[in-house]
Prior knowledge:
The complex is a heterodimer of chains A (203) and B (465). Chain A is of the alpha/beta class and 203 residues long. Helix content of chain A is 33%, strand content 15%. Chain A is built from eight helices and seven strands, in the order βααβαβαβαβββααα. A seven-stranded mixed β-sheet of chain A has the order 4-3-2-1-5-6-7. The longest helix of chain A has 14 residues, at 184-197. The mean pLDDT of chain A is 93. Chain B has helices at residues 5-13, 38-46, 77-92, 108-114, 146-155, 180-191, 206-209, 213-221, 237-243, 253-263, 313-326, 346-349, 352-362, 380-388, 391-397, 447-456; strands at residues 14-16, 24-26, 29-32, 57-60, 96-98, 123-126, 140-143, 157-159, 164-171, 199-204, 230-233, 275-280, 287-289, 297-299, 341-344, 372-375, 401-402, 423-426, 441-444. Chain B is globular, with a radius of gyration of 21 Å. At the A-B interface, helix 4, helix 6, helix 7 and helix 8 of A face helix 2, helix 3, helix 5, helix 10 and helix 11 of B. The structure holds iron/sulfur cluster. Iron/sulfur cluster binds at residues 62-63, 107-109, 128, 130, 346-347, 407, 410-411, 428-429 of chain B.
Amino acid sequence: MEPYNKHESIAALMNRSNVDTDQIIPKQFLKKVERSGFGVHLFHDWRYNEDGSDNTEFELNKPAFKDAKILVVGDNFGCGSSREHAPWAIADYGFNTIISSSYADIFYNNCFKNSVLPIVVDKTTLATLMDEVSANEGVKFVVDLENQQVTTPAGNDFKFEVDHARKENLSKGLDDISLTLQQIDKIDQYEEKHKQSHPWLWV
Amino acid sequence: MKKTMYEKIWDSHFVVEAAGQAPLLYVDRHLMHEVTSPQAFEGLRLSNRKVRNPHSILATMDHCVPTKNRDLPIADPIAKKQIETMAKNCQDNNLNLYDMKNPNNGVIHIVVPEHGFVHPGMVVVCGDSHTATHGAFGALAFGIGTSEVEHVMATQTLPQQKSKTMLIQIDGELSKYASAKDIALAITGKIGTAGGTGHVIEYAGSAITNLSMEGRMTLCNMAIEAGARAGLVAPDQKTFDYLKGREFAPSGDNWDKALAYWKSLPSDDGAKFDTIITLNAADIEPQVTWGTSPEQVTGITSIVPAPEDFDDEIKRQACSNALNYMGLTAHTKITDIPVDLIFIGSCTNGRIEDFRIAAEMTKGTKVADNVTAIAVPGSYHVKKQAEDEGLDKIFIDAGWEWREPGCSMCLAMNGDELTAGQRSASTSNRNFEGRQGKGGRTHLVSPAMAAAAASAGHFVDIRTL
Ligand code: SF4
């Protein structure tokens, strides 16, 4: 995985709540057997017109949001299915940071596996950030994972929480499987014990 | 210390917590389908890793499979490739797969209990959010992403943060024809789709113990719609009776050992939950969703709300968007909403009891003019059982289509779908925009409510029939 470095990037705004995974990546795009190439389908049904042309009404199609790496979005983002295609599409599109007041659990977990940092802010902060972006479309925020801080030109700076292990892994680009396999002896020992206490699981 | 069932299962599956890393939890059972697994197998291959415990995995094909003309090749080339990839991955890794032609085939969360593959006290995962279904057995069952699917295949563990616990206590008697589905929808209506975020729910109370195992599966299935990671029901005699004799259930000496363990699982009296919610079963009417989120739901005797009815600005906006998408006028009576298509099926309501109650409603009726009604059994076993009981005839005589098993219109990936503007009464679990087809309008209901709407052409209060 790519290490997550401090960056200054355009923040795009989607003022919608309860955006579900069916909207993030509609199911007709789930049939692929590869992990890449989902970015062009991100928010497909909102993003494109019937004839395949860009829907200019859709927020992310605004020229000012082109090349945005930060997505500022309403409450309960990523609810619905467990499909990891959702963060794959988000990362493949070019976002590496999301700022919202809450996320669905599975989606939140999936982000960290794909070098996407989901930042949680309180509702008031979110509203302030949304106001800043809509007043100044194309504005750039600085995201500093090391110091767990976001700074903005209007001074709406804030600190955010992130689990220590997740922060480490994200900033070093470590993948979970290799980390877990460092504990393989412990897993073997556990399994032996579990076989003794739950023999019916192994027949 | 007094422990909840969740804490007992957590403690018995805790492997290690390395410095600076999340605790590792051991996984007993891993369920799979064709949509969320191919990239995990690809990852495993690229890193030269193997499946650690092939026996812990049961796989099926359900999301993309056609529900008619199964003997013909799959028309959609991308779906066909996904199906073929699944077959190859299972063969290469020596995994138990119920492929499309297998008499055990069906929707993963229907098939797994049928074979007794999940037992109380297990940790169960699947790359599918409705894995929560298996909490009906008192197993900690939750959905994971594809990277985690790969992680479990390689290590038989998952890094996990401990969840908070929520007790949903429901006592009293359900009214006639109100069902587990109505309980699930009423809960989502009460606490919202984010109400359970960060929690594992335990359902308790007389209304829950009175549910059949199938009803408990329907209830736990929709824990995710209330935002929870998993749902749990304490195992009891019904659970043990259901499991006894099934293919993967313990037998002989092992049965007694397992039973002793299972009986130790229910939450201790006085165990502390982080959040407690109570509902009175008698207050739960048959439910109908009117919007594009499972929390936008109300009782059959009610009306479609107006944005002004909500205090919260976000909810007002959501209501107005939903009415717009659903083509509904505020304050329309729910019983005045017409329907075009009826779907009975899915891992929420595709079990034999669901078809029995729907057949009871359907018997001697005719599908209303301009309405299409399809019944999609959750598995070949459900289909066969229904046919043995003559239920298929009741549906067919009334003008329904009787299909082969699969996810079908629950997420409309296999070609079964609504056209824009079409309105369904559906026994599935999600009414998101476009879920059942672009522009399609979904109302979530119980099987009895769906069946009654088929002949009436609109929603009806089944308690008055
Ligand atoms: S029936 Fe629906 S919810 Fe269940 S597994 Fe299939 S698509 Fe998912």
